[in-house]
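FW: tagging you since you asked about this chain on Friday. Here's the raw sequence from the shared folder, copied in full. Didn't touch anything.
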Amino acid sequence: MNMRGFMKIVAMIALGTIVLICGMNYRLNRVVQKNISEDLRNDGIDISVHYGSYLNRSQLVYDLKSVTTSNSQVDVFRVLFQTASVLQDRSFDEVILSCDGDSKFMLDGAYFSELGSGIWSAKCDVHLENLPEHVMYLSGASAYKQWSGVKAAG
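HL: got it, structure written out here
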């Protein structure tokens, strides 16, 4: 095999790898987008999801792209919970919370799965109350202090 033939094979493998990576992340995001768009209350909230570094299937990146002024904080959290629900059959070690491509915080993957299990809307207030104690900086340190008071009954 000459050098030109070898380079063609390398280029085809590289191109195939890129197509495979894009396809994996496209399918992941499409599943979430389809679910989110079915709830009209989510209009005005733009998110995307992809695997960590687009390759790491044990890490999910949840990226909040934009929110209109007509959306509330509860709307934003509902979309996060709905995303967890639609991805509950997948296992992640961690979920990176990003804003417009800038990674800010992370959640433990097991907790993210917990957010998606069951009927989240019935426990929305409990999830909202407990969420801060599960939010971590990217270093793994807790982003918020643990709550030590009395919690609402759930």
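FW: Residues 3-137 form a domain with the GMP Synthetase; Chain A, domain 3 fold (CATH 3.30.300).
HL: agreed, and The beta strands are 45-52, 56-67, 94-99, 102-108, 136-137.
FW: great, closing this out.
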